[in-house]
Amino acid sequence: MNGFSLSRWFGIMLKEFIQLRRDRLTFGMIVGIPIMQLMLFGFAINSDPRHLPTAVVMADPGPFARAYVAAMRNSDYFRIVGTVDARDADSLLDRSQVQFVVTFPPGFHRDLVRGKSPVLLVEADATDPMATGGAISVLNHLGAEVFAPDLPGVQRPGMAAVDLRVHRRYNPEGITAYNVVPGLLGVILTMTMVLMTGLAMTRERERGTFENLLATPATPVEVMTGKIVPYIVIGLVQVTLILLAARWIFQVPMHGSLLVLYAVVLLFIVANLALGITFSSIARNQLQAMQLTFFFFLPSMLLSGFMFPFRGMPEWAQVVGNALPLTHFLVLVRGIMLKGNDMGMLWDQVWPLLLFIAVVLVVGLKTFRRTLD
Amino acid sequence: MTAAPLVIDVEGINKHFGDKHVVKDLSLQVRQGEIFGFLGPNGSGKTTSIRMLCGLLTPDSGRGSCLGLDVLTESAAIKRQVGYMTQKFSLWDDLTIGENLDFVARMFGVAQRREVVARTLDELGLGGRRDQLAGTLSGGWKQRLALAACLQHKPRLLLLDEPTAGVDPKARRDFWEEIHRLSAAGITVLVSTHYMDEAERCHRLAYIAYGALMASGTAHEVVAAQQLSTWSLSGPHLQGLAQTLGDLPGVDLVASFGATLHVSGKDAAALEASLKDFARRKGLTATAVAASLEDAFIYLMQNSQDPFAGGK
Questions:
Q1: What is the signed CA dihedral for A59, A61, A62, A68, rounded to 10 degrees?
Q2: Out of B15, B56, B109, whose CB is closest to A215?
């Protein structure tokens, strides 16, 4: 009597399809997420980044130095942003404006002609070891290619024309954990903060308790900020746990001020919570809030420079990446922990976060339905 | 009663959701201390109307006041003096009874909150269960808790949206006794319901169908206004006769009432002639009775068109 009924089975399947079609957002995600993944993995991600911004310190502007710089540019790995003096070069590295600083020492030309192998100093921002690897390996044989044709006879076999010295700044041993652990701080905060606030609000709507809340004299600002505070505390606890692990398990250095780091973390938490609240105003139920979070989380992971070098991405992906708070937070955290950045050096990355918060809050408050209509 | 001031006084209130005209030109006057019943079929705009009165929704047009405050511009001040009980239990399942009461009291800024919450718990008889999660309460207790929660800030007006749906008869009776006690204390109550016995417990009624007010007044007035003559038919084999009866001249409405059929119509003479003839042929007894509130409402419901359903 109760065997497998094909028509019953078909009825269940049909109902599932109908419900799936009704849920527009879910349907959009089903189509949107694979397309987004294709775009991100197929086009945006590049683990061998090129066109890395490079500053040149030129103490001896001779023809050989110029030829070398031209060859760097032609290699495609370097984008020469300008010639600066030594002090500015340091600051550019500290503020993550350039990936490399190449220093041509005084007497470079003369030493080269005499076959004395002048020292060519290349300083790399090695916070992300993956970002610099390809470019440095290119430099290794660039010297021979550039100078050999012009220096016949001077070249002795087995002896390089220049003495290339690469300083991997901030992370001389190329330890991946130095880059990943501070990055995880941002990734974990993004995930939990956006998701938790998104769920907190939609849960009220789904259970009908939201109506009760609206019937009280509570104002939208009271509701929003009141609901946010517990999650700020949770975020700070998470950060503290990760920092303790970074210090005692992964031995990640902490060159900057802990206070500045927490201030930046707080700003980042606020940015994510604002987004979570806005998502919860858009989503009609908890499932949709989760989907929206995932939709935001995916590019945050892939385009922010957490998993793959930011500078390796094509222009459009960098534009998208720059709109994500995690991108700026990663530069901030790595800057503070690994480079010892102080407050004054952070502004470049702080204002995009502030702008993000402002835009998202305006959208959120507009969509937050004070009344049920 | 007539001397009492108006607590709700709205005129020509409209509300649209998209292209649906949910409330049409609603006008309503409720006096202080009254128990005002709000009746009408499902989806007739009762909940929307109540939400507009307590400031949860803003009317698209119309004007009116609630507790002397403008419903269009002073919803924040109205909320402070209104107790609103939602159709669905909307306290927090994952908070305890005590925590729920305390939270609601805080939201309304109740003075001497601890004392008020403690007294509310005592009056509910839930003092010993204050640490029980609200979600584990039975339907009747949830309803009592919800009512108690929205009384803590001493509202002058109670808006109750189908408060007794799914509650057993004993709990319903207790609930209505409480409503009458509150009314006697001067609190105005607007309550929506589907139950006729509850409608009859209200001082005055309004019947709303598909967004429009169809009838209002005391139960007696509402019935009288329909000018229905009603006959009660009794006898054997009544079940299959409703369809035939409905086609007789003068018959507008046939409704089962236990073992009898109530047959009503506007045209008293035609109805009487049809029924007497019908009863004689089928061997039934026909007695003239007073039209009940239920007859009046079913008649109203039949004669109002549902614009969204495309027919009646």
A1: 90
A2: B56
| Chain B residues with CB-CB distance to A205 below 8 A | none
Question: Per the CB < 8 Å rule, is B79 touching A217?
Answer: yes
Burial (Cβ within 10 Å: 0-12, 13-18, ≥19) of residue B106: middle
Residues 263-302 in A contacting B (C-alpha not used; CB under 8 Å): none
Question: A214: nearest CA in chain B?
Answer: B56
A373 neighbourhood in chain B, CB within 8 Å: 15, 17, 57-58
Per-residue pLDDT of chain A (373 residues; tens, 9 = 90+): 578 888 889 988 998 888 888 878 778 888 888 888 888 888 777 777 888 899 999 888 888 888 888 888 888 888 888 888 888 888 888 888 899 998 988 888 888 888 788 888 888 888 887 788 788 888 877 777 777 666 655 555 555 677 888 888 888 887 888 888 888 899 999 988 998 888 888 888 888 888 888 888 888 778 878 888 898 999 999 999 999 988 898 888 888 889 999 999 999 999 998 898 888 878 888 888 888 898 899 889 888 888 888 888 888 888 999 999 999 999 999 889 888 888 777 888 899 999 999 998 888 777 765 545 5
A228: helix, strand or coil: helix
Query: Mind listing the domains of chain B with CATH numbers?
Result: 6-96+150-222 (3.40.50.300), 227-290 (3.30.70.260)
Q: Which two tokens stand for residue A224?
A: 């929003």
Residues in A closer than 8 angstroms to B57, CB to CB, are: 371-373
How far is B174 from B199, CA to CA, in rounded Å? 15
Confirm or reject contact between A221 and chain B (CB < 8 A). Answer: no
- Considering only CA atoms, which of A145, A141, A133, A147 is closest in space to residue A164? A141
Domain segments of chain A as ranges: 52-169, 176-367
**What is the number of CB-based contacts under 8 A between chain A and chain B?**
52
Contacts of B17 in chain A (CB under 8 A): 373
Q: Chain B within 8 Å of A211 (Cβ-Cβ)? A: yes
Assess contact for A280 and A197: CB atoms under 8 A.
yes
Dist. CA B285–CA B288, nearest whole Å = 10
Rounded to 5 degrees, what angle do the CA atoms B17, B85, B184 make?
125
Q: Can you identify the CATH homologous superfamily of domain A52-169?
A: abc type-2 transporter like domain (3.40.1710.10)
Do A217 and B84 lie within an 8 Å CB cutoff?
A: no
